Amino acid sequence: MTVLGLVGSACGGLDTRFRAELAAPAVARGWRPAITLTPTAHRWLDAAGELDGLAALTDLPVRSVSRLPGEPRPHPDPAVFLFAPASANSIAKLALGIADNQALTVLGDVLGDPGVTIVAGYQVQDSRLRHPAWCRHLAALAEAGVRVERLEYGKPWSAVLDLLPASTG
Description:
The chain is α/β, with parallel strands linked by helices. It is built from 7 helices and 5 strands. Strands 2-1-3-4-5 form a 5-stranded parallel sheet, with helices on both faces. The radius of gyration is 15 Å and the shape is globular.
């Protein structure tokens, strides 16, 4: 199976949709998810009892914190990342190069690398789209080669998986 860096941040529906609409369908398409969550997303999924279900989908640990010096790297280096759901806050931080948590560090370390594919599916309220910096954030990510798509409310998140290259595994 090809490793997919599956990164998620805290958005409405995360607790019920992340595993069912992103992680499990990715596995069904031949991906081996290396899951990294923002601290808040990890907290939400832990409270919802979803972490064990996610761990059962992969042989890799579900991460939200950095490793200690000297500890082995828990995930291989994926050539493909899916950042979904991506909150407005996380999209802005990624575009600005702010890596204040493990999820944004993983993405920030490969942003702009021509050998790495990044797809970001963001979920934001309509009011966020009017923020004067929003278009600049999306443009910065697009300039770095990120394919950015909005996750529409009421539609399955799994549609963003169609934006990934085919798994080779």
